[in-house]
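To whoever is on call:

I kicked off a structure prediction for a single chain this morning and the downstream step that reads the tokens threw a length-mismatch warning. I double-checked the sequence; it's 365 residues and nothing unusual in it as far as I can see. Pasting both halves so you can look.
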Amino acid sequence: MHGGRIYEYAEKSGRSSDHVFDFSANINPMGPPKSVMTAIQGAINGIRHYPDARHIEVIQAICSKYPMAVAQSVFCGNGASEVIDLTIRALTPRRVFLFEPAFAEYQQAAERVRAEVVHIPLFAGSSFGESLTDLGELLHDIVSRCRPGDVVVINNPHNPTGMCWRRDEFIRFVAVLGERGVTVLVDESFMDFRPDESERTVMPDTEHLKNLIVVRSATKMYAIPGLRFGFGVAHADLVKKIEVNRDRWSVNHLAQVAAIAAYQDGQFVRATFSWLQREHGYVLQTWGRHAAVQIYPPSVNYFLIHVREDLPVESIVAQLEQEGMFVRRCGNFIGLGAFDIRIAIRSHEDNERMWNAFNDALRRL
């Protein structure tokens, strides 16, 4: 089940939503930026009109932030989930290849068009802590199995492990798959949290690879999940195909205004990098050394742990929830189980609160 169910958490814990500490949704605790809040307040009167169905100004902002993007190659959606759904509906593939564990919305989008889902395990073995299989090896295998019209979904940085591949580790396979009539969708919803983004993103490759679509989200980096904004970048011909049959009003006026301000706020991005670097160090010094857990080192704003299986994980989570702290249980991810937990990185105060509460829960066992 998707994280971020703040109102359900409040009801479950008997607290107001303001007193719930949501570690299940990977939202930047530094946001929304002041620039975004100011822009929203100044645009309130605009809600009396329909939003711009062409998304002209926000696409201009995207093209300014990401110089490799051109207006004809960008399409917007009500969050990354709608961008993914629009893409799958436009392509109507017979098969969709997913690297597991994977974001549930990929499979849901595939099932809505009655596509067969082919699950590709990322883990080299069956137990947590074993290295992820080389992505190039997996794609090489898919090349031998794919058929024209198939879609391959790659999530980078990967959710929930946090693994982040370099562009040169897999981009050559995208071209080979294109020669076989296979479309590759790369979900880069968390790429904005990477200072080395230029070495990881495949967005520039959409200019010459007609089978490549890149998905981005403003929701996580700029902390606007209540507004929802995401966009896709692809070859202009593919964008036209995606735009043909969609709800033209799905991206509301305030979401567009917020995204425009967000993508112009370089200072906020630099402050985020500084915060995240400090908190990565804290996570590694605490969770990374804890005898009760195994951890995938964080690369973005969350980390994945495996609780030692001789411990009563249900009791531990219940005690955290009594303290108003909710994490993302990963038992419904293919390849993970009941002892696997994804934890968002929040403010330092909140991160200390979670760390102390986890240790308190262990001591009460």
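Update from on-call: the warning came from a stale cache, not from the record. Cleared it. Sanity check on the structure: DSSP finds 13 helices and 13 strands in the chain.
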